[in-house]
Amino acid sequence: MHELSIVQNILDIAESEARKNNAKKIIKIGLKIGEMSGVVIDSIIFCFETLKTNTIARDAELLIDHIPLAGKCKNCGSNFQINNYIFKCNTCNNNDIEIITGRELFVDELEVE
Amino acid sequence: MKIKVVSNILKANDSIAEENRQLFKNNKLFVMNLISSPGAGKTSLLERTIKACNGKISIGVIEGDIATTRDAERIEKTGARVIQINTNGACHLDSNMIRTSLQNFPLNGLDILFIENVGNLVCPANFHLGEDIKAVVLSIAEGEDKPKKYPGIFREARVLIINKIDLLPYTDCSIDKIKNESLEINPDLNIFEVSCRSGDGLDRWCNWVKAQKEEKK
After folding, report:
1. Cβ neighbours of residue B188 under 8 Å, at least 6 residues apart?
2. What's the CATH code of the domain at A18?
3. What integer is the mean pLDDT of A67-86?
4. Which terminus of chain A, N or C, has less C-beta within 10 A?
5. Can you tell me the distance from the alpha carbon of A71 to that of A73, in angstroms, rounded to the nearest whole number?
6. Is 0.90 surpassed by the pTM of this model?
7. How far is CA A105 from the centre of its chain?
8. Which ranges of B109-162 does DSSP label H, i.e. alpha helix?
9. Could you tell me if A112 and A20 are in contact, meaning their C-beta atoms sit under 8 angstroms apart?
10. What ipTM does the predicted assembly reach?
């Protein structure tokens, strides 16, 4: 239920970057959202459509790159996709796993004019 | 024109959380962010923990709820210093709410600060407040399937308190399944089995809390 405030943050970041670059209009906002970021993408899209009116992003399109959860084994160093939230190396069975992707929640790029 | 941004969407929250963390560190305060679904027993756990520390450790509590001061009133009866935040609808506490509440909440003389988050297993996992650790409370009545349904908080937390173990004979809940699936998500999780009603398991929990405080000093 915090997607509304997250979308407000997205718009704040996008508008501030656009202004820094003297842009009049935001056309696209590219987001990277990880599988384990804790946000619901459908809600992000819904809230974006509501909040973007009356901003310079009113005609903007949201491009969302959904990033799967992947880890690196701290024992044998192998990289692998984490399924069903089981943090265990499928090569050496070690369970000391560093998350390498899947927690992203950031504005990646903008297209402006 | 394309602009590369790479900006964390939660950076506004994270940077205030960092300021809070610095303030807590300057006060040599151990801070725990307590997270669970509604009714798992966060407030009962705090009442029990405060009583067990019996004036030897000075405890402060920030209570987060959507509405009412009921939890703060319960904590006040234990003698601990307490302040209530009402989020008026928001599903989690954020770092700015904590910073604002600290203007009316002196930290001097405190050893441990507990922040009781709004009852919710989802959103609080993403909003750091400046705490040392997050603790997740799960009660037997909620069922054994919750860790895999809400993996974010079980990965973020340093400690899991399984509460209401006195209800085990009346449910089909498997405590082993809770433990095994939680450890699949987070092998470093410290797990405590307690009943705030009967008092079972609370000694071990309270000793662990005291040890964390000593480490911070």
Report:
1. B158
2. 3.30.2320.50
3. 96
4. C
5. 7
6. yes
7. 4
8. 146-149, 151-156
9. no
10. 0.87
- A98–B contact, CB cutoff 8 A: no
- Which tokens go with A1? 């239920």
- Please check whether the domain covering B11-216 is classified as CATH 2.60.40.10: no
Q: Is residue A83 part of a domain?
A: no
Contact in structure between A4 and A44 (CB atoms under 8 Å): no
A15 at B interface, C-beta within 8 A: no
Kindly report the nearest CA distance between residue B140 and chain A, in angstroms. 21
Tokens of B171: 């449910």
Q: What is the pLDDT along chain B (217 residues), one digit of tens a residue?
A: 999 999 999 999 999 999 999 999 999 999 999 999 999 999 999 999 999 987 789 999 999 999 999 999 999 999 999 999 999 988 899 999 999 999 999 999 999 999 999 999 999 999 999 999 999 999 999 999 999 999 999 999 999 999 999 999 999 999 999 999 999 999 999 999 999 999 999 999 999 999 998 888 7
CA B56, CA B48: separation in Å to the nearest integer?
Answer: 14
Say which DSSP state B141 is in: G
Tell me whether strands A70-73 and A79-81 are parallel, antiparallel or unpaired.
antiparallel
Q: Which of B7, B90, B187 sits opposite A96 (nearest CB)?
A: B187
Domain holding A12, by residue range, is 3-68+102-112
B8 in contact with chain A, both atoms CB, cutoff 8 A: yes
**How many structural domains compose chain A?**
1
The residue assigned the tokens 């399924």 is A83
Q: Which residues contact A7 (CB under 8 A, 6 or more apart)?
A: A44, A47, A48, A51
Q: Is residue A21 part of a domain?
A: yes
Inter-chain CB proximity A85 and B148 less than 8 Å:
yes
